[in-house]
Specification:
It is built from 8 helices and 8 strands; from the N terminus they run αβββαββααβααβαβα. The longest helix has 30 residues. The mean pLDDT is 89. InterPro entries: P-loop_NTPase (IPR027417), RSG1 (IPR039677), Small_GTPase (IPR001806). Belongs to the small GTPase superfamily. Rab family. GO terms for molecular function: GTP binding; GTPase activity.
Length: 247
């Protein structure tokens, strides 16, 4: 994987708060709540404000109970289940997120197809993990701040995603249930040490979902920025390879 870009170096990270973003974000909202997009649905812009859409496949992984399904629902603006049920197979959820590139001012819709698969199902059925890995663009490694074992298991999870075949896959770590500080089993010092060792961004999520966009904007913007950065690096490498071939 390419070096992690500096936060806000490629996209306008607080654009959802800017006045010129309203005509784009209103396309993913309905009555001030996020729209639920099906697999074949997408935001519709007027012809004079047509926006390109970039498509990405995101795999969410982590121990059972850390909140994989809840995170997918949160990012897509869906209702978060109150009771935990082990995901019995693969579930996919679609989230759209408009982004403004910092250098060019170009606006893009990021279509994020979130793949979630239960830990027990992955162990029982050998074909599920290859399906999740196929043409994947990013993987989110989840741990719960209330479950120390899920944090200790991160190194094992990340090691499974090493090697040339997944070298271009964006990797981010997300700590869930950050709001339950009274039951926290993972100290901030441990998180800092982990970041220094693995050089991976660690994001935090938790608490009630608001009607606005602020609770998901940091994570979606970080994911979008890393995906776009990886695309730029890949395009540059291919151009150099083609140039060398021509010469």
């Amino acid at each position: 994987m390419a070096q992690v870009p500096l936060h806000g170096s490629l996209i306008v990270s607080d654009w959802h708060r800017c006045k010129d973003s309203k005509e784009y974000f209103c396309k993913i909202l309905h009555k001030k709540r996020r729209k639920n997009f099906g697999l074949l649905e997408s935001p519709v812009m007027p012809p004079q404000a047509a926006v390109d859409t970039v498509h990405y496949k995101i795999f969410i992984t982590g121990k059972s109970g850390v909140g994989k399904t809840a995170l997918a629902a949160r990012l897509a603006g869906l209702n978060i289940p109150n009771i935990h049920h082990e995901t019995t197979g693969i579930e996919t959820t679609v989230a759209y997120w408009p982004v403004k590139l910092r250098e060019s001012g170009r606006v893009l819709f990021f279509r994020l197809q979130l793949w979630d698969c239960g830990e027990n199902a992955l162990r029982r059925f050998d074909h599920l993990l290859p399906s999740c890995k196929e043409q994947v663009d990013a993987v989110l490694f989840l741990f719960s701040f209330t479950d120390r074992t899920s944090f200790d298991d991160l190194s094992n999870q990340i090691t499974k995603w090493s090697g040339p075949s997944v070298s271009r896959v964006v990797k981010l770590v997300v700590g869930t249930k950050f709001d339950l500080f009274m039951h926290c089993d993972v100290a901030e010092r441990d998180v800092r040490d982990f970041q220094a060792t693995w050089n991976l961004p660690v994001l935090r999520t938790g608490g009630e979902v608001s009607d606005g966009l602020g609770d998901v904007a940091p994570l979606l913007n970080c994911l979008a920025e890393n995906l776009w950065h990886q695309d730029c690096v890949t395009a540059s490498q291919r151009f150099q390879e083609e140039t060398v071939t021509v010469l």
